[in-house]
């Protein structure tokens, strides 16, 4: 069973409103269940049943970890303990909305070049498999005088015709094997560090991870969670293994009495956390408002992500169009050149 991201945000908002209005938690869940369908209704009824049997909300929701992650449960738990569940749910609704918007910006920026690349590969495969073989017989009649571009194109066509299925099978096996290798922690860590160094894309991913870390940690600290517990929860909110390792190391060093700023300024943290993060947290540590500094960092990088996404489209669009144009020109020249030579000779 699962609940969509937008539906979870909506449920959290509605639950916060009803609890704030004084509606009992069990009654609020029942009201939401009546308005829902499918898996959502079943999950809400199950949570209500556990509440009626004496469980608290965080524990009841914890039975569905694929829907309510540790960050979500941590905020709910603090809200129940402090008697400010309505405020905690409001925090969650706002932060989930920001997370959803952030993911949309990042995925939108990466989707355009991905679609163009797939379309280009598809076009090249279609030409090789279906267009060129029909011209092979014609070109064979004067194969001695064929231009190099035509010979290359025909070679590709013959290769795809003879070994196309085998090639795709090998490529599929290689991709599957790579995905299996990524399940090994050392390989996954190497890969996650590598992609952070890719021009443009790496910067976008760094900004996403930093923004997520700062926003989630700031929200948990403001909700009343101790920073050590908040950091342990923040680890599970990160998508990149390099950041998970770094945050665990950060937590360990904090427990030894070191300041967060001092740790983040170490060389091994600089790739993952830009200088702005350490500088802003330093201000927060001096003024006693680390959570406000973290919110500033999160907002700054969310805005920067939007700008980076626009720049990516601006830079990549002409480059991709140029590559496609060169491919089309190469195919056109390879097909037209021998025909032009033949007509010239006949003339």
Observed structural traits:
elongated, 83% helix, 347 residues, Receptor-associated Protein, mainly alpha
Task: Give a quick rundown of the structure.
The chain is mainly alpha-helical and 347 residues long. It has 15 helices and no strands.
Describe, in plain words, how this protein is organized in 3D.
- With 347 residues, this protein is mainly alpha-helical.
- The chain has 2 domains: 5-68, Receptor-associated Protein (Up-down Bundle), CATH 1.20.81.30; 86-347, Up-down Bundle (Receptor-associated Protein), CATH 1.20.81.
- The chain has 15 helices and no strands.
- Helix 2 (25-35) runs antiparallel to helix 3 (38-52).
- The chain is elongated.
- The termini are far apart.
- 30% of the residues are buried.
- The mean pLDDT is 81.
Topology:
Blueprint: H1 5-20, H2 25-35, H3 38-52, H4 57-61, H5 70-82, H6 85-140, H7 148-181, H8 185-195, H9 201-223, H10 227-237, H11 241-255, H12 260-264, H13 267-270, H14 275-287, H15 290-346
Count up the helices: 15
β content, as a range? Answer: under 5%
Total count of strands: 0
Helix content: over 70%
Distance between the termini: 73 Å
According to CATH, the homologous superfamily of the largest domain is Type II secretion system (T2SS), domain F
């Amino acid at each position: 069973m699962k609940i969509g991201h937008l539906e979870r945000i909506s449920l959290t908002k509605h639950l916060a409103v009803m609890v704030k209005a004084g509606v009992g938690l069990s009654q609020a869940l029942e009201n939401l269940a009546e308005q829902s369908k499918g898996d959502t209704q079943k999950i809400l009824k199950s949570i209500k049943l556990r509440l009626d049997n004496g469980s608290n909300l965080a524990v009841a929701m914890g039975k569905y970890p694929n829907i309510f992650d540790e960050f979500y449960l941590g905020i709910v738990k603090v809200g129940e303990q402090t008697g400010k569940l309505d405020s905690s749910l409001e925090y969650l609704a706002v932060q989930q909305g920001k997370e959803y918007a952030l993911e949309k910006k990042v995925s939108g920026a990466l989707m355009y070049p991905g679609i163009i690349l797939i379309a280009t590969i598809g076009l090249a495969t279609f030409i090789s498999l279906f267009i060129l073989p029909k011209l092979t017989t014609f070109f064979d009649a004067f194969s001695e005088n064929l231009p190099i571009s035509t010979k290359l194109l025909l070679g590709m066509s013959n290769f795809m015709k003879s070994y196309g299925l085998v090639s795709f099978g090998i490529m599929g096996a290689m991709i599957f094997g790579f995905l299996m290798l990524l399940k090994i922690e050392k390989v996954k860590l190497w890969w996650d560090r590598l992609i952070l160094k890719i021009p443009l894309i790496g910067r976008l991913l760094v900004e996403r991870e930093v923004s997520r870390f700062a926003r989630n940690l700031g929200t948990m600290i403001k909700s009343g969670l101790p920073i050590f517990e908040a950091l342990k929860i923040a680890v599970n909110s990160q998508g990149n293994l390099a950041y998970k390792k770094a945050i665990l190391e950060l937590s360990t060093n904090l427990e030894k009495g070191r300041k967060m700023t001092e740790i983040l300024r170490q060389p091994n943290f600089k790739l993952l956390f830009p200088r702005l993060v350490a500088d802003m947290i330093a201000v927060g540590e001096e003024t006693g408002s680390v959570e406000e500094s973290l919110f500033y960092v999160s907002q700054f990088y969310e805005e920067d992500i939007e700008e980076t996404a626009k720049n990516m489209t601006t830079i990549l669009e002409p480059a991709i169009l140029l590559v496609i144009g060169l491919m089309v020109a190469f195919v056109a020249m390879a097909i037209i050149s021998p025909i032009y030579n033949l007509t010239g000779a006949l003339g």
